[in-house]
Structures are given as C-alpha cells and as structure tokens.
Amino acid sequence: CSGPSMEPTIQNSDIVFSENLSRHFYCIRKGDIVIVKSPNDPKSNICKRVIGLEGDKVCTSNPSDFLKSHSYVPKGHVWLEGDNLRNSTDSRCYGPVPYGLIRGRICFKIWPLNDFGFLRASPNGHRFLDD
C-alpha cells in the first residue's frame, strides 16, 4: 500500500500481508481492508476499507459536506473508502466498485515490527450505516 489514503492505519512504508481466498468465497465484510484493481487505472492496485456491501445504505458525501447524501450499494459491488477521508480518492469519487475487482484482503501488518499484528479498526467507524 502506498500513498496517504489509508493513514493512520497503514503508512506509506508499511508492509502488509494479504490473502486472496476471502474474495473467492465471498467472505469480504464491512471493515475489511482490501486490495483492488483501480477503477480509474486497471494497471494499478489500490488499498481501501470496505464501508458497504451490496444492498447496504452508505453515506456518499464527504465528511465536510453540510448536507449528507446516501445511496444503496448495487448488487455485485462494494463501497470503498480510505481511512484518511480528507486525502483519499475512493468510492465517493468513482462510485461503487465491482466485487470482481477485489484482489485480496489485508490480514495484518508485518512491518514496522513495533506495529506488527492485526490492523486497527476504522477511525471512521461512524460512517458505517446499519439501516
């Protein structure tokens, strides 16, 4: 993962471990961090957190927007956002992402050693809607 979009959870120099079986068995859940083929550039991968699964209601506006807008994630898609909402190009820009673009799920951080282990929960947990 490179770039600032997943800070503070994943820093630019961190090394993470990912697996790709979850995507095949449709075991991706809200809150998981996934590696996805970029909807904007199919030659590159992006790293984002799953905020919504098909049928979920999600907030489609930016945190600073006065009026909040909501939408439902269509069948066969996920809603992805970076943990660094102010510096992330994600589903708020390009919309829901087809499930088929998911390449893997990040399980834990390997480097730096002092931060080794499972990844922390989303700093934006309030954006997960349950209705």
Topology:
Elements: E1 15-19, H1 21-24, E2 33-37, E3 45-53, E4 57-59, E5 70-72, E6 77-81, H2 91-94, E7 97-98, E8 102-111, E9 117-118
Antiparallel strand pairs: 1-8, 2-3, 2-8, 3-6, 4-5, 6-7, 8-9
CATH overall fold name:
Umud Fragment, subunit A
Please trace the helix and strand order, writing H or E for each element: EHEEEEEHEEE
CATH class category: Mainly Beta
Question: What is the CA-based Rg, rounded?
Answer: 14 Å
Compute the number of structural domains. 1
Number of helices: 2
The average pLDDT is: 85
What characterizes the major β-sheet?
7 strands, antiparallel
Residue runs with pLDDT of under 50 for 5 or more positions: none
Label the structural class: mainly beta
Family: Belongs to the peptidase S26 family. IMP1 subfamily.
Subunit structure: Heterodimer of 2 subunits, IMMPL1 and IMMPL2.
Protein name: Mitochondrial inner membrane protease subunit
Pfam families: Peptidase_S26
